[in-house]
Amino acid sequence: MTPVAGKRPAASRAEVRHPPRETAAAKPVRARRSFLPWGRANRRITVEQRSLLLWLTELLLALARRLLVVVKVLAALGALAGALWLGRLGVQHVVASPRFALQQLRVDPTQHLTREQVVALTGVATGDRLLTLDTDAVAARLAAHPWIASARVRRELPTTLVVNVVERRAAAVVLMGGPYLIDDSGHAFKPATLEEADGLLVLTGISRDQYSGLREVSESAFREALALHAAYQHPDSLATTRAAHTRGGRPPLSEIHIDPRNGFSLVFYEGGAEIRLGRNDLSEKLARLDEILAALGPRGVAALQVVHLDGPVLDRVPLRLIPPPPSEPPSPAAAGREVKKSTALRNPVISGSKVSPPAPMHTPSSSSPSSSPPARSRPPTD
Prior knowledge:
Layout: H1 13-17, H2 52-95, E1 104-107, H3 115-122, H4 135-143, E2 148-156, E3 160-167, E4 172-175, E5 179-182, E6 188-191, H5 194-197, E7 201-204, H6 208-213, H7 215-233, H8 237-242, E8 253-259, E9 263-268, E10 274-278, H9 282-296, H10 300-303, E11 304-308, E12 319-321, H11 332-346, E13 350-351, E14 354-355
């Protein structure tokens, strides 16, 4: 059929009756799995068969590399051990060498210990190996002695051992059931003998039980007493100004008594007078003591018995004086000598220190009548 121009061609009968259907979208194809649940999808695996000789060669190479590392480590450890062994042999040879043996022990001079005592305390002897000596142990043995406060030990190669010792200084004697020496820190370091306690200040008032139970407090009280003694021996400017008119220094002390409640009391060496100071304003109270001694005159120390300076500074100071000894009646000879002395002093013929010659005395002649009265007659007797 020939199509007519200007008209739409008619569709065929088959196309009108049966229109074309749309095709469904293509679904993705899943890989085929095994019928077992733990199975995996089929894959193409290429199997390469290696030679047994090649496998053995690689194994031997790996073992060789590891053995080489082990050999290097063992060689390094062996070299280090050999060096240490050789070094130890060298040190032992040097230590045991007689060139480094102790031949000289140098000790500083001490006041309370002799050189032989210090050498015995060290525990070393001539010929000991100097390099193996424990200097700390030697210093500890020295410091264990009561008179030694500290010790320092050092070597001077090749053959000398030097010992430096610092001794304690006995500052006072403390009576605690017995005499004990204390140092400047208030520490009681040894019992005192009569020779060691001679000339030292005595501190009293603290018992042995109090010192054992309250060591720090007791040592603090001892330090305060020592400071008071130092202030007493070396007056400050205030005391020096007030006592400028006095002659000499303050009287020496024999004892300082420590009272936990009432404070400190001084005891004079001569006469045993007690000066109660208390605790506060000690410098002011010592200055007032100088004024009291100056006011009493030359017999002031011997006349004092108790001085109460433990009250307020502005109050009056109570004193207790020693009563004078009872006067004895003079003997006739002494009275005669006293009369003669007083008469001679009042005699007008004495001028200065020279005595003028006495006037000539008139002696009676033998013819002069006797001045004696006539003797009485004896009464008659039966």
